[in-house]
Amino acid sequence: GQQVMQIPQYQHVQEGEDFTTYCNSSTTLSNIQWYKQRPGGHPVFLIQLVKSGEVKKQKRLTFQFGEAKKNSSLHITATQTTDVGTYFCAGREGAQKLVFGQGTRLTINP
Amino acid sequence: DSGVTQTPKHLITATGQRVTLRCSPRSGDLSVYWYQQSLDQGLQFLIQYYNGEERAKGNILERFSAQQFPDLHSELNLSSLELGDSALYFCASSVVAGHDAPLHFGNGTRLTVT
Q1: Residue A96 pLDDT class (50, 70, 90 cuts)
Q2: How many pairs of residues across A and B have Cβ atoms under 8 Å apart?
Q3: B27: left (phi over 0), alpha (psi -120 to 50) or beta
């Protein structure tokens, strides 16, 4: 079945450093969504990517969708303490259910 | 506030018991999803409903069942509970049935089975 792998599982950075999490699917995805879950909170939708090679930016966050639509990445420039949380990608193959990656937990040393 | 309401927030029960988790979707959302999140784990998809009908099924155990009512609220029933069922259960809703639509998550119900 469809699998979405996310790496790394954990990432600890100094405040101000950059951060990247990667998402890889075993199959071609029709779209990919990214969510952020703060500690003790619930996942919150960040963005959706649909087109091959698509790049979207939200302030310090840059999201990319691979040319083959099998991988995606989230890059945060100059992390801030407010970026702490777990970042999930979620992909869908065709009409299949939305499958979440295991998430990358980001912790930041102020 | 996502607009998705889940009750109760916390539930503590014993093995072998049965519990019901309730979810009210955002106003206007027709689709409801249930996810299970164990400690330090990802989000495991359980089941999806759209306008009262089951739309998709994930790795939901036979001991678990769900339904969506005419007023669109949903309930997840967990029976013959085991210690391993302890987890955070999230409900999410979206406007349409397709998984293109963003999901809006509730605050979750934390279930502890002792």
Answers
A1: low
A2: 56
A3: beta
